[in-house]
Amino acid sequence: MTRIRRDQRGAVSTELAVLTPVLIGFMLLVVFAGRVAQAEGDVANAAHEAARAASLVATPQAALEAGTNTAAANIAEGAVACRNLDVSVDTSDFAAGGQVAVTISCEAAFADIAMLAVPGNRTFTSTAIEVIDTYRANSGSSP
Fold this sequence. Notes:
Layout: H1 11-55, H2 60-77, E1 82-93, E2 99-109, E3 121-131
Antiparallel strand pairs: 1-2, 2-3
């Protein structure tokens, strides 16, 4: 003889109603973590590309321009919008065998996922260093 417990009817609906806000919160947290990781990656990649571009030019002034322009272009192509972009190109050791360093700082907004009550903005910073080719040719000398 099979007995059906009638007092369990609707239990799944109640559990689902209780768990839905938790699941939505978890999904928003995953989205936030993904956005943070994407922004960190975008800034680190832009710093690396800017340092590489700065290390390939002939003069410190050209390195400043190449680093700044490359950083701005890479950040503009990134998946997360950055505000208050700050690019610092260190050419104090700009010589054959020396190095050039690029530091990028940008502020990313997370207002579109405000349901998590996270701060609206977060600043991301990354530094990349590239060695200047030891055997580079001087741009002003003739062979």
